Amino acid sequence: MNHLNSDLLRTFLAIAETGSVTGGAERIHRSQSAASLQIKRLEDIVGQAVFDRHGRGVVLTAAGQKLLPVARDVARTLDSTLREMKSDDVQGKLRLGIPDDQSKGILAQIVAEFVQSHPRVELEVTCAISIGFENALSSGSLDLAIYEVAHPKPDAEVLRKERTRWMMTRHQDLLSRDVIPVALFDRDCWWRDAALSSLEALGRPYRITYSSQSVAGVAAAIEAGVAIGLLGETSQTAGLEPIGAQFGFSKTPESHLILGGAGDDRTPALEAMQEAVRNAFLDVRHA
């Protein structure tokens, strides 16, 4: 006899709360196809559909509405029990740097789960553009940081690599203009340098029409049709499209997300956070 399990219920809960399979899959760090297969298995077990497709999203059926409070209770009970059993005596202060464009995704989840599992640790989080994090580690003003570089050192711990791409809105042909409008980061950093090098190699007139300190700001300008801009592939939204090589842009560097620590002072709190970060990114790669 088939039984409901918590993994299926968590997938169901994530999709129900976000209103779409895509959104639910992102929340639980799985692919859309994997989440869809789990929902199919759930529906096979209960013998009824739990979602109706509605436009680009989903809505709960009567069976789904009945299942929703059960799924919430199961997830809440299991999470609470796990926190109580895993709670430990790790204590102290940990200063962590997180890139601002990552704060709403997986890294925010890592911080939340760490605080729940290690309540005696005083966590001081700096959420900002990450170009200064490496120097902050060297100076001792941060204990641990996650930051992006184009060319990591040989001994660097790389959490993730992604391609960088020129992108523009799907609704305007900005490349047909005589002078290409460009959105850039407004500080000296490798992202800005890579974009300017690519534009110089292109050999077409351009004008910087927008600048921002954050990925979100640059992405918003691109989606609004203000300019084209250089982003990582994971920043692409439904309103953006990559600019293909046929337009003459040269290949831009990969972005490497690095986990870096300050020196050799490895406290229990630091080691616990490093393990939490590594495990989370390992789960994403295997999802």
TrEMBL record:
UniProt KW Oxidoreductase keyword: no
Any coiled-coil regions, as ranges: none
Keywords: DNA-binding, Plasmid, Transcription, Transcription regulation
GO terms, molecular function: DNA binding; DNA-binding transcription factor activity
Pfam families: HTH_1, LysR_substrate
Residue ranges occupied by any HTH lysR-type domain in the UniProt entry: 4-61
InterPro entries linked to this entry: LTTR (IPR050176), LysR_HTH_N (IPR000847), LysR_subst-bd (IPR005119), WH-like_DNA-bd_sf (IPR036388), WH_DNA-bd_sf (IPR036390)
PANTHER family: HTH-TYPE TRANSCRIPTIONAL REGULATOR LRHA-RELATED, TRANSCRIPTIONAL REGULATOR
Family: Belongs to the LysR transcriptional regulatory family.
Name of the featured protein: Putative transcriptional regulator, LysR type
Annotated organism of origin: Phaeobacter inhibens
